[in-house]
Amino acid sequence: MDTAGEATVTVPQAVFLLALDDETGRPLVDRSAFAQVLSAAGLIELIMLGRLRIAGPAGTEEGVDADAKPGTFVAVGQPLDPVAAGADLEALVEIAVGRKPDAAVKLREGIAEEFVDAGVLGHEEKKFLGGTFSERWPRGGNAQLEDSVQAEARALLTGDAEPREADRVAAALALLHAVRVLPRVFPDLDRASISKRAEEVVDLAAVAGELGKMIREAQLSVILTLSTLAITTRD
């Protein structure tokens, strides 16, 4: 894939853009699953940015990890710039520290709002008696970004491109595969083929090691807690 055409997005942004129906602007996965996948995406982004890591076995770590419980998140580095990285991502650090990935992915639901504020997508909602009962995110002024993310994701799934180092779109595909929504994102592609390819993407070096472990644990958590996943079909 031509690097000039690769999109520059975070993992949550890639998930958010890919998981929306192009025509209705509504998520292709139910609200609970969407919140969990976005939270997991935020945690993976923080690992890629060097702001979080997963503590190793007891007695093998030094410095910041020395007192951390093995397998839990540890904050490293300096706090993120809230303007450059988004306030919600830094807030997720405080929530995640000391928790294992399968617990942390259930705790934050507000990651998506900052992407709407950036103008990538619009946001419309209908309320009844003070509560929101319908939301959608139509394409915004920066539709080129959404198109670029979709094109990059398609190339990865068809094998026309391989994941790059710390590939955000590849990580997003792995998470969306966990909630079984990829066939709805790309209905023209063979279901079995993209499922197999999504598994391969997780195992490739670009998302291996600590990131691969995080993605696998996030996938398992989402699958276990949403075993009766409801796919949205409303117009």
From TrEMBL:
Please verify whether the record's keywords include Membrane.
Answer: yes
Q: Per its UniProt record, what InterPro entries does this chain match? A: GPP34-like, GPP34-like_sf
What keywords were assigned to this record?
Golgi apparatus, Lipid-binding, Membrane
Q: Which GO terms describe its molecular function?
A: phosphatidylinositol-4-phosphate binding
User: Which Pfam families does the UniProt entry name for this protein?
Assistant: GPP34 (PF05719)
* Record's subcellular location: Golgi apparatus membrane
**One term under GO cellular component:** cytoplasm
How is the protein disposed in the membrane? Peripheral membrane protein
What name does this protein carry? Answer: GPP34 family phosphoprotein
